[in-house]
Amino acid sequence: MQINEVTRLDRDDQVAVVTVASPPVNALSAAVRTGVAEAMAMAYADAEVQAIVLICEGRTFFAGADITEFGKPVVEPSLRQLQVIVEDAPKPVVAAIHGTALGGGLELALVAHYRVAVPSAKLGLPEAKLGLLPGAGGTQRLPRVVGVERALEMMTGGEPIPAADAESVGLVDRLVPEGALREGAIAFARERIGAPLEKIRDRPLSLRPGQVEAFRQANAKRFRNLAAPEAIIRSVEDGAAIPFDEAMARERELFNELLAGPQSAALRHVFFAERQAAKVDGLPKGTPTRPITHVGVIGAGTMGGGIAMNFANAGIPVMLVETRADALERGLSVIRRNYENSARKGKLTAAQIEERMALLQGTLALDEVAACDLVIEAVFEQMDVKQDLFRRLDRIAKPDAILASNTSYLDLDAIAAVTSRPEQVIGLHFFSPANVMRLLEIVRGAKTDVGVLATAVELAKTIRKVGVVVGNCYGFVGNRMLAARHAQAEALVNEGAMPWDVDRVIHGFGFGMGPFAMRDLVGLDVGWVREKSTASTVREVLNEMGRHGQKSGGGYYDYDDRRNATPSPIAEQAVIDFSAKLGIERRAVSDDEIRDRCILAMVNEGAKILDEGIAQRASDIDTVWINGYGWPPYLGGPMFWADRQGLPAILDRLRALQAAHGEAFRPSPLIERLVAEGKGFADA
């Protein structure tokens, strides 16, 4: 019987089956909630029904609340009202789970009397990733099922757990075979006919002395500046201290506080921005893509090896090319070691390591890439080196092969121009470590074919990257803005700040580390050539002294055997001497000036990038910076952050900085236009 457009009620002898089909992810929309409530009422009223199964069609169980309804008037029944209907069922209710049971989906399953799942299912409460806490009883019921510590880990981290793990901690009552969820759930429901109807809310929730505080302290670094994890912890504490209904009311208050707060707004922006990035101007939906069944990667160093791992992880064979046998062997050894590290953390099995390594074939012969559908170079960041390689690849690669450059800064069109197939050349800018970082800047050249672009966009999904299409210019989006920040960071140090002052302010803003600590980590000598060094920057001076960063025991900072950093007196003197060399009289530099010059330089450069069409939309810039450069997600990205500050205030500050520090801060024409029109970057 069809209840409404998304809900159906059927019977299998004594078992009623409530089926929801609301693609793509069966979100708990108003229509879904209404349909389930009506179906449940009918099943309760049917004297022949002795048990009920709640199941979804399509690729998943309820994947969560309908985020588009957040902040809007609630359409009854609310999720909490629906939960009461299910929880108070006079007959056993079994939630049948496949795909994912996330957020509100799992919270609905937690009010059923039982949960069965197929082995491939995953269950979780990811609300913290949106700056929220589970607002429909998740903080109260999950700890009563899996224990306080496991519940806190699941809720504050937001990562779903596999069905087998869920069964081991009691979150799932039975695993049933893949493809037999409906049959298995109905069979399980029959077994429970007449059994006592236990509610999870009636189970005890108790805390050991110091248990929650120990969790807080153990995760202090991970939770830095985040509001949602602390709210989750407090709500669990409430559950142990006050009656269930009062704790539920307090959970809702905390949820509403977070929902109205700036962090959730920013994180929801990030959520939608990543999805919006896949919509590319000039790339019609349904554009044919090319099959990528074999990939060539030129260069087996840190970047090339990481790139190769992405494809092996996706089951795509890789030909890894090097010029020297020792470099090739070292590259393959590093890849194996990376996989073994993952295995030690329980993320891979020994068999999976061998499966992936078997997909990686090393060679010293460039000709071996002749049969590859895609060839990616990860060689030295120098134009003549890349152009020479592309000339050779143009002769070797099969006619329909895509040739990709991993260049970070160089002109993609100049690289493509040396080939006879510029339409098949594209930029695929991975971020180090390439096997870990989520961002992939997809650089569209002036002549890049639309089918090649569509293939790259689809390929990003295949290798589980966040692909953002950008235009061709120096540094593209991320590195062009990074260069603007670096220029100000260096200027601030020349004028009177110390590197650790700048790092402290940028870290305090929310970044994982500041620009000088990052340079030490990467290596001050990356891109530095001793023979061409002229001591024209503090970085060059330090390199000439043999201070290359962490790997040499010193750069801007000094490092002990465990790479713990302390401000370096040697670097401090180098800074002071360099200022004197430039004829600059050093002065006191405030934290506010450091923040404004570094952050507003990025915002202003981002506005220029947007105005020039290098980025399609402001949210694409945010996506680049969050996934590739460590911008704190709870601040939404540089362009979102600027909108929240108010562009009139940004414009005023840029004009003041221009007057004090020169043309680097001349406001982008786009900012001036948007302010004049009363708009923000989101409207551009």
From TrEMBL:
This is Short chain enoyl-CoA hydratase /3-hydroxyacyl-CoA dehydrogenase. One of its GO terms (molecular function) is enoyl-CoA hydratase activity. Pfam families: 3HCDH (PF00725), 3HCDH_N (PF02737), ECH_1 (PF00378). The keyword Isomerase applies. Residues 294-472 form the 3-hydroxyacyl-CoA dehydrogenase NAD binding domain. Keywords: Fatty acid metabolism, Isomerase, Lipid degradation, Lipid metabolism, Lyase, Multifunctional enzyme, NAD, Oxidoreductase, Peroxisome. In the N-terminal section; belongs to the enoyl-CoA hydratase/isomerase family. The keyword Isomerase applies. It is found in: Peroxisome. It comes from the Bacteria. Residues 475-559, 596-679 form the 3-hydroxyacyl-CoA dehydrogenase C-terminal domain. Pathway: Lipid metabolism; fatty acid beta-oxidation. SUPFAM superfamilies: 6-phosphogluconate dehydrogenase C-terminal domain-like, ClpP/crotonase, NAD(P)-binding Rossmann-fold domains. It catalyses: a (3S)-3-hydroxyacyl-CoA + NAD(+) = a 3-oxoacyl-CoA + NADH + H(+). Gene3D superfamilies: 1.10.1040.50, 2-enoyl-CoA Hydratase, Chain A, domain 1, NAD(P)-binding Rossmann-like Domain. PANTHER family: 3-HYDROXYACYL-COA DEHYROGENASE. GO terms for biological process: fatty acid beta-oxidation.
